[in-house]
Amino acid sequence: MLDLAYLFLMEKKRDQGEKLIRNPTLKLSEQKLIFYVTNAIKEDRVDVIHTLFSILVSCPLSEEKLSNGSLNYVASSSLKGYVKNKDMESAKKLIVEIEGSTLLIESPLQLMIDRVK
Fold first, then answer.
1. How do residues 47-61 score in pLDDT, each as one tens digit?
2. Range of the domain at 108
3. Largest alpha-carbon pair distance within the chain?
């Protein structure tokens, strides 16, 4: 089911993917999350990584499912992708979202945020 959610996100069908990810009976493991992010990076789909981050930090269950380090990994992967693609507008929107979330920002991510600002 989570693979289906990821495919929905890749096809820009956020609503369907988000419903599956938010399903409390599905457990998104850190290994699966890293797999999804790695594949999105290979496909140059920063938008998918950003969407995953947005869904996960807005879902109260995500804190139980995933470590803070994993969420920092998703955020930093998305931010790196935007910087690499020189999409500073999207990078700044992501920073606002990161800083407005309950995420405990780790040092490497904070350094990246400071450089973009």
1. 999 999 998 888 765
2. 2-116
3. 39
